[in-house]
Backbone:
């Protein structure tokens, strides 16, 4: 074959490869309101930065007519490119090729990209748009999923892993995203479930739509499986670019530091008015977060799930910070099963990737009740305690109002491992609230009094002053300082700056046994 003939064949094969399942299927993809696998990559990555790997791979199976269904690339696009000038590896399933189904070589391409990301210390992004396992390839498909799950697991805590669900993701396919750090979905486009509506109808008789069963809203509000929800693919991909700019490339690097034009000594006098005198009056803790951190830098994670606790990333003097905060406007900010799980996993992510952590505390305790007890609140609450105690990144706690009981320990206790705990003058630290404590400690005095209600009010005041007063906890060394709310931003930065170079070892072991 002459050089020209070889070149012509190359161009023909390249054009065929770039077309995926062909023009008709690309048109059908667009008619569903979806981008193609390559369009998604081009939208996400810096211009002309993508280098594809294993470009011309094809299926090896010949059973059930698969020898007549050979597509170059085997239904997935993998390789490396740059986002904001920083390298990433990624895979993007091509629904135009056999419905994006996963077979042996399809899986091989994905797992190769995963392992290359880990070797190079770069984030890995997977864009899922697949009908699931390729049935014609039988156990080859199942083996392929297993390779992907194992690569996800080996990469966990080593590189950030992001899963973008932009189509169906069903059956065994859902477990790979579940192992990764963050999952993204788009309304009316993304669907994720173990068994679809047809199987559920056949087995249980229950009627439910794809969207209600496994759509973006179901997974952000109800299951908590998904961290971010969007109205369009483009909005989702742009957000991913922003999120990655907060994160280090791997567990050996520190997070990127931005140039900050928001003065670190900017006063926050508005916080004096934010906090109500009446402890029963709710307020929005996100107002405090947005006031304290660099302007416009707050990214909330899982905002629709377990809303009694707020988690997310923000910048403080240009530095990436992970944060969790009790939300008084939802369930009076109690910690329950879902809030504990949500916060614990986020703390572990921050610790994996060297992201300092700040806790904003206004919590009455863990939620009581038979539903919580029988649902395992002991085990789930212990996850949060375990995560905080295990973490070695800088950990700062600010007690905004109340911090009671076991929730005090989880959210703010120096003995659990917080490096520095500070408080506002209005803070209260105790085993329980003053009214409940007075009913226990001064029960006899209140009963014997001529005016029980007056005696109760007196004893509540006495308990607050002698036990809950923040200067009592500070006197024991449990609070490092009591600060002016108007100086919160600067005080948090000074607290964090004390520990930015912190090094802390843990006993040598294979791993702990977290109460999962």
Residues:
């Amino acid at each position: 074959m002459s050089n020209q003939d070889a070149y012509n064949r190359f161009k023909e094969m390249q054009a065929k490869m770039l077309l995926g399942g062909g023009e008709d299927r690309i048109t059908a993809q667009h008619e569903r309101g979806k981008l193609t696998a390559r369009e998604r990559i081009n939208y996400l990555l810096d211009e002309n930065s993508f280098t594809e790997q294993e470009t011309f791979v094809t299926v090896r199976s010949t059973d059930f007519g698969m020898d007549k269904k050979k597509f170059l690339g085997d239904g997935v696009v993998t390789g490396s490119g740059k986002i904001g000038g920083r390298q990433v590896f990624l895979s993007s399933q091509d629904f135009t090729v056999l419905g994006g189904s996963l077979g042996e070589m399809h899986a091989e391409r994905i797992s190769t990209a995963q392992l290359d990301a880990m070797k190079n210390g770069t984030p890995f992004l997977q864009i899922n748009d697949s009908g699931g396992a390729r049935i014609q390839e039988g156990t080859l498909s199942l083996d392929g999923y297993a390779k992907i799950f194992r690569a996800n697991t080996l990469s966990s805590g080593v590189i950030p892993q992001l899963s973008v669900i932009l189509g169906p993701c069903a059956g065994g396919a859902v477990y790979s995203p579940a192992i990764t750090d963050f999952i993204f979905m788009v309304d009316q486009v993304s669907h994720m479930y173990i068994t679809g509506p047809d199987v559920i109808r056949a087995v249980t008789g229950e009627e439910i739509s794809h969207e209600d069963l496994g759509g973006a809203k179901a997974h952000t509000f109800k299951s908590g499986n998904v961290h971010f929800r969007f109205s369009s693919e483009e909005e989702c991909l742009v957000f991913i670019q922003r999120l990655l700019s907060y994160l280090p490339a791997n567990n050996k690097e520190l997070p990127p530091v931005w140039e900050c034009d928001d003065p670190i000594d900017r006063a926050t006098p508005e916080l004096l008015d934010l906090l109500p005198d009446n402890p029963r009056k709710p307020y929005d803790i996100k107002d405090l977060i947005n006031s304290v951190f660099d302007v416009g830098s707050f990214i909330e994670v899982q905002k629709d799930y377990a809303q009694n606790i707020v988690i997310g990333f923000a910048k403080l003097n240009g530095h990436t910070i992970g944060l969790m905060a009790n939300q008084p406007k939802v369930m009076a900010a109690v910690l329950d099963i879902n809030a504990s799980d949500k916060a614990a996993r986020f703390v572990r992510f921050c610790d994996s990737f060297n992201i300092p952590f700040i806790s904003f505390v206004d919590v009455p305790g863990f939620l009581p009740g038979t539903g919580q007890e029988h649902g395992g609140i002991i085990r789930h609450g212990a996850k949060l305690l375990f995560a905080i105690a295990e973490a070695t990144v800088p950990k700062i706690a600010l007690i905004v109002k109340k911090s009671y009981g076991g929730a005090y320990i989880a959210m703010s206790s120096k003995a659990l491992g917080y490096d520095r705990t500070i408080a506002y003058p209005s803070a209260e630290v105790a085993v329980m609230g003053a009214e409940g404590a007075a009913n226990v400690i001064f029960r006899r005095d209140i009963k014997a009094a001529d005016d029980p209600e007056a005696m109760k009010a007196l004893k509540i005041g006495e308990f607050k002053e002698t036990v809950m007063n923040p200067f009592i906890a500070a006197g024991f060394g449990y609070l490092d300082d009591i600060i002016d709310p108007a100086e919160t931003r600067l005080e948090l930065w000074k607290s964090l700056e004390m520990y930015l170079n912190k090094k802390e070892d843990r006993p040598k072991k294979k791993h702990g046994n977290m109460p999962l």
Q: What stands out?
A: Residues 104-120 form the longest helix (17 residues). Residues 185 and 216 are 5 Å apart (CA to CA). The chain has three domains: 3-244, 270-427+479-499, 433-468.
